Amino acid sequence: MSLDSLKASLPDYAGDLRRNLDTVIGDSALSAQRLWGTVLATAIAARSPVVLRELEPEARANLSPAAYTAAKAAAAVMAMNNVFFRTRHLLSDHEYGSLRSGLRMNVTRDPGVDRADFELWALAVSALNGCGVCLDSHEQALRRAGVDRMTVQDAFRIASVVHAVGVTLDAEAVLAR
């Protein structure tokens, strides 16, 4: 299946999601690499098998092998970082912030693609996972790299729509039983 199949599988009550998929993916101003890397990273982070199954082939077709791997790496490392840094931030004992994390994150230093693209994918995953510390860090890195606010917002718009589609379709699968 494909993006069209995914849209067709949405129930009528989720018509806004269908239109939003058209907008955030079909009418995106992002480059193909930024768009499809964001789609792939957030499809992984959304944890919806149907969304990942439907969007992955188009992402693979639109990304170089290096970008495909880097988008998956962004989803993987941010799955860890978002939990770790969000927890450290939420604890009332701020001394945890002065401790060494002890976590390997080498891919963030050399992702194999343009650093701004990787930062954009990491920001989108962080939006989906709700880590304010990571969101601020990646947004600031993107702004320092000259990425405009509309591009940053496009990334978290994609994350929000991909997540909502996954929630809706996964719920429909359970309710149809």
TrEMBL record:
Organism: Streptomyces poonensis
Stated family: Belongs to the AhpD family.
InterPro entries: AhpD (IPR004674), AhpD-like (IPR029032), AhpD_core (IPR004675), CMD-like (IPR003779)
Lineage: Bacteria, Bacillati, Actinomycetota, Actinomycetes, Kitasatosporales
Domain of life: Bacteria
Keywords associated with the record: Antioxidant, Disulfide bond, Oxidoreductase, Peroxidase, Redox-active center
Transmembrane segments: none
Record GO terms (molecular function): disulfide oxidoreductase activity; hydroperoxide reductase activity; peroxiredoxin activity
Residues in Carboxymuconolactone decarboxylase-like domain copies: 97-175
Keyword field contains S-adenosyl-L-methionine: no
Complex and partners: Homotrimer.
Annotated catalysed reactions: N(6)-[(R)-dihydrolipoyl]-L-lysyl-[lipoyl-carrier protein] + a hydroperoxide = N(6)-[(R)-lipoyl]-L-lysyl-[lipoyl-carrier protein] + an alcohol + H2O
Name recorded for this polypeptide: Alkyl hydroperoxide reductase AhpD
Enzyme class, first EC level, given as a word: oxidoreductase
S-S bridge residues: 131-134
Catalytic machinery residues: 131, 134
Example of a GO biological process term: cell redox homeostasis
